[in-house]
Design a protein that fits this description.
heterodimer, A: alpha/beta, seven-stranded mixed beta sheet, four-stranded antiparallel beta sheet, 14 strands, B: 2 domains, four-stranded mixed beta sheet, two-stranded antiparallel sheet, elongated
Chain lengths: 289, 515
């Protein structure tokens, strides 16, 4: 881990009409994997698109590896150093996996043909697609396509990797495989992983950010988020009316999250419990930057 | 959003990309070019183009291909390239829309290579296809130029037109993709553009300047003229096409967000080149050229050199001197078959062109009235050989070309037998020299100037004679030469003199000179 952040953002604000997609967002991302979770419409994708330089923010400033995307030169330098896997990435379906990634490599200005092809083979091997690199993308499964997109994002060994819900739509096995790849990718670079899967965050991330309505409501470690629910998860035979959330488990008992009654049978909290409590009107508490 | 908050961390060193956008543009252009060349329309039209070119090169079409006129061959390479131009337009348009169709544009827009540079790469991807077109044109021209019978001078500008049109079409496809990013945009613009051109043409008329705004102006004719009388502004037109292609490319790049000084400067230069090209090609034929054409038609001797071979003199425009030997062979063979004084009569073979008002079209050449002068055209090989032979035989029999129109009875039979018997394959030549490719009935036999009208009986007699051994007929012709060339000898008499049986059912009564 280094002390200097890969991404420093301050006061990022972006409005679509009357809606604030981003509302004064400040954050710093360092090496390792940071999970970005929040409900639909929380602004996760918008934040990633702003950091990926796809759209400019209305207000605020940020830097990627020391380069200011507010300037043309800075934006180009930032783009050279980031990999972006968008939500629902498109593919040129008639291209082979190799040619598609090769195409993206050219757009990343990897101009030397031999070196570029080496790099394309490397990233395809990294996502375990070497065997199907000559197959047309239209013949690949959804999981394989996602891996092609990840391979494209990994081109050039970027210092910052922005992944927007990369595991959505994947079956459990594919999701496990993808987790492995993301974990590997996060070993030597900064990864911002936007996801709905709290399991992914719990298993992969060093840090977690919870966004609600364009604002950051929590930033800390997964353990800190989990700790928010310590003493606030309990078991009962019926759903506790005082619980903020409660559901019947496979054991037949109810798992309640909220303010437990006196003498309640407390359970070990999970990251999801902490997330639910953050969403449920908890006062914003952002870990110090 | 302009303040940099932190200093760059030192932990990470990304893969060196070279930071050479021009190199990336070329790499992308190469990638797109490979994709373009395997697209079905391009592949199909390329096959058609190669097939038609090969057919033109290798087909036994009248053997006229063995005597190519290079300043016609160069522009004959242009129309075939229109197929490739259409394919380039369609496929480059589709390729430029690919990211939008597949939803990758939002992703690709955050990659390093800016959209306007990608636009340039798409346009440059047509260059290999244009190069293939240039290669095809070069092979077609080179093949013709290497033939022993080739005459004339080709023009690089004419040869460059086809490839430039392919390039222009590709660039247009890119521009339309940027202006109207829908698949239907390309065809729609083509239809609207074509309709506009038609309307403008109908309102303004087919004026020279408007005609030359078209990408290809082929202007084909059956009577080629010397290259220095063509007056085609091919170099200006090539400059116009280059300028127009560059202007369209620059506009596409500007629409895609390109704002560099270099791009703006290139736009200005391209605009200048295009305007200069239009200005250069627009004036049309000047007075000096029109006068020169008229003189070359009316008094060709002033433009020609002559050489005496054997009994006759052969005069041609400077570019056609290589054909004199071929003319001589035909003349000698006919004179060997002729009797009386005709066998040793000195002839003057004069190459001539029709009065040229415009290059396109087939104007007729007026017959000469000077005794012993025979017209040779500016084409040779195939059917032109028996046609020339008919002209030579006509002058030997009738005295001059003017008299050919009044030939009848025995003279027609004598002329046609002389002309056809001198051919390598008399019966085939006889069939082809007749306008309707027939071997029976009345017909018109072609000649460089006045055609020869043949009755059914004359046709029957000539066909019968051509089916017999040459030496036997030749002896009879020489023996009865005076009577056979007399306007007073009837068809019945000529049949009798040459030993052809009378026609059954009285069809032997052809038109006589008296009638």
């Amino acid at each position: 881990m280094t002390t200097a952040p890969t991404v420093s953002a301050s006061g990022l604000t972006l409005r679509y009409g009357g809606t604030a997609a981003l509302d004064d967002v400040s954050l710093r991302l360092r090496e390792g994997i940071t999970g970005l979770i929040g409900p639909n419409g929380a602004g996760k994708t918008t934040l990633l698109r702003v950091l990926a330089t796809a759209v400019p923010a209305d207000r605020g400033a940020f830097a990627v590896l020391g380069h200011d995307p507010g300037t043309t030169a800075g934006r180009q330098e930032a783009r050279r150093r980031l990999g972006y896997l968008p939500q629902n990435p498109g593919f040129h379906l008639d291209f082979t996996a190799f040619s598609f990634v090769d195409y993206v490599a050219i757009l990343k200005e990897l101009t030397d043909r031999a070196a570029r092809h080496r790099e394309v083979r490397r990233v395809l091997e990294a996502v375990d697609l070497s065997d199907v690199r000559g197959k047309r993308i239209k013949r690949l499964s959804g999981g394989m396509r996602q891996r092609v997109a990840l391979a494209a994002a990994l081109l050039g060994d970027p210092g910052l990797l922005l992944l927007d819900e990369p595991t959505v739509g994947l079956d459990p096995e594919q999701r496990m495989r993808f987790r492995e790849l993301i974990a590997q990718a996060g070993e030597s670079r900064t990864v911002l992983l936007s996801t709905h899967q709290t399991e992914d965050v719990a298993m992969l991330c060093h840090r977690v950010i919870v966004m609600v309505r364009g604002r950051i409501h929590f930033e800390g470690t997964p353990a800190e988020l989990t700790a928010r629910a310590a003493g606030r998860v309990w078991s009962s035979a019926e759903r506790d009316p005082g619980a903020r959330a409660g559901w019947r488990t496979g054991l037949g008992t109810f798992r309640n999250v909220g303010d437990p009654p006196r003498g309640a049978a407390l359970l070990e909290p999970t990251l999801e419990d902490g997330y639910l409590l953050v969403l449920d009107g908890e006062p914003a508490e952002v870990a110090s930057l | 959003m302009s303040t940099v908050i932190d200093k760059a961390p030192t932990v990470f060193a990304p893969v060196e990309t070279g930071r050479r956008p021009a190199a990336a543009v070329l790499a992308l252009a190469r990638f797109e070019a490979r994709e373009l060349l395997v697209q079905i329309p391009v592949f199909f039209f390329l096959l058609v183009y190669v097939g038609t070119t090969a057919w033109k090169l290798f087909s036994p079409r009248e053997d006229m291909n063995n005597y190519p006129i290079l300043h016609d061959v160069d522009r004959a390479t242009q129309p075939g390239t229109l197929l490739l131009a259409v394919a380039a337009f369609i496929c480059v348009n589709v390729a430029a829309l690919r990211s939008r169709r597949h939803g990758t544009d939002r992703h690709f827009d955050v990659l390093v290579l800016e959209p306007w540079r990608r636009t340039v790469a798409h346009a440059l991807s047509v260059v290999p296809l244009a190069a293939v077109t240039a290669l095809g044109a070069a092979i077609e021209f080179g093949w013709a130029a290497l033939k022993p019978g080739a005459v004339g001078h080709g023009s690089v500008a004419e040869l460059a037109t086809g490839p430039l049109v392919v390039l222009l079409s590709g660039v247009l496809g890119v521009l339309i993709a940027r202006l109207c990013p829908r698949l239907a945009g390309g065809p729609l613009v083509v239809v609207v553009g074509f309709a506009t051109l038609m309307v403008v043409s109908s309102v303004v008329g087919q004026t020279h300047w408007l005609t030359w705004l078209h990408p290809v102006v082929s202007e084909t004719s059956n009577n080629p003229i010397p290259s220095d009388l063509l007056g085609r502004p091919a170099a200006w037109h090539a400059l116009y096409l280059v300028g127009l292609s560059a202007v369209l490319l620059c506009v596409a790049a500007l629409v895609s967000g390109g704002r560099t000084r270099l791009l703006k400067a290139i736009t200005v230069v391209a605009l200048g080149a295009m305007v200069t090209g239009i200005a250069g090609q627009s004036p049309g034929d000047d007075a000096a050229l029109i006068t020169a054409r008229t003189k070359a038609s009316s008094t060709p001797a002033a433009f020609q050199s002559c050489v005496a071979h054997g009994r006759s003199t052969y005069c041609s425009f400077p570019e056609w001197t290589g054909w004199r030997d071929d003319w001589e062979k035909v003349v000698d063979r006919i004179q060997d078959l002729a009797g009386g004084g005709a066998g040793g009569a000195p002839l003057t073979i004069r190459q001539r062109i029709p009065v040229v008002h415009q290059l396109e079209g087939d104007a007729a050449i007026e017959p000469l009235h000077t005794p012993g002068e025979v017209t040779a055209g500016t084409r040779w090989g195939g059917n032109r050989v028996p046609e020339f032979a008919v002209g030579v035989a006509s002058v030997l029999v009738a005295g001059d070309e003017q008299a050919v129109s009044k030939m009848c009875d025995a003279r027609v039979v004598t002329v046609m037998w002389l002309a056809m018997a001198a051919q390598d394959d008399p019966m085939t030549a006889f069939r082809h020299v007749r306008l309707d490719d027939s071997l029976s009935g009345s017909a018109v036999a072609l000649a460089p100037t006045n055609p020869v009208g043949m009755s059914a009986e004359q046709t029957r007699i000539v066909r019968a004679l051509l089916g017999r051994p040459l030496y036997g007929v030749t002896a009879r012709v020489k023996a009865h030469w005076t009577e056979l060339t007399s306007p007073r000898t009837s068809e019945a008499r000529v049949a009798e003199l040459l030993g052809v049986p009378a026609a059954k059912n009285g069809t032997g009564a052809g038109e006589s000179c008296q009638k």
